Amino acid sequence: MARFFTTSHARFSMLGASIFWAAAVVLRVMMVAWAPAVLLTSSTAEIANLTVFIAIGIALGAFIVPWLVPIERLRRARVAAYVMGALIVVLATVNDPTLAKIVLLLIGMSGGIFVVPINAALQELGHRSIGAGGAVAIQNFFENLAMLAGTGLYTLALGGGIDPVVAIADRHGERSEGG
């Protein structure tokens, strides 16, 4: 495994992919409570529909990324990560379902533009250093560890009386019962 992390591209890519998946899982967990509290959705189908916009955005981002972030310019992917983070902050201010879908689509596009070149770099670096299978195994380990950490931190926050969804709902004048 040490051979895999000898380059800054490998470390950047692994950290970036892991943080991306941690943020994605926390966003998805939060959306289950956020949508009813802030958007006043009433069914799981409506919540699932919101996640479709993220998925479509990721697909669109993956489609256009070859023209925006060639593998030789991997660090350009950071810009998409910054945009994605800013859009998540913007999402916290949204209380209109249509606007939420647009922001979620843009979050997904930014995510696709970020994660696709990161994954390509990890596969290429892995192929050259420890083999593609070993690289995929290491990548999956760190991504799943990051998702576990993200979910764990969210759960700890809830256990400590800090509910991000209630804070967002209060900001919009709504009140979530139990978050």
Could you walk me through the main structural features you see in this protein, from its secondary elements to its overall organization?
- This protein has a single domain, classed as Growth Hormone, Chain: A (Up-down Bundle), CATH 1.20.1250.20.
- Helices cover 79% and strands 0% of the residues.
- It has helices at 8-39, 44-68, 77-91, 97-129, 132-159, 164-171.
- It is globular.
- The protein starts with 7 loop residues before the first helix and ends in an 8-residue tail after the last helix.
- InterPro entries: MFS_trans_sf.
Write the layout of secondary structure elements.
Elements: H1 8-39, H2 44-68, H3 77-91, H4 97-129, H5 132-159, H6 164-171
Helix pairs in contact: 1-4, 1-5, 1-6, 2-4, 3-4, 4-5
| Fourth CATH level, the homologous superfamily | MFS general substrate transporter like domains
Envelope shape = globular
What's the β-strand tally?
Answer: 0
- Name of the CATH architecture: Up-down Bundle
Largest sheet, if any? none
Number of helices: 6
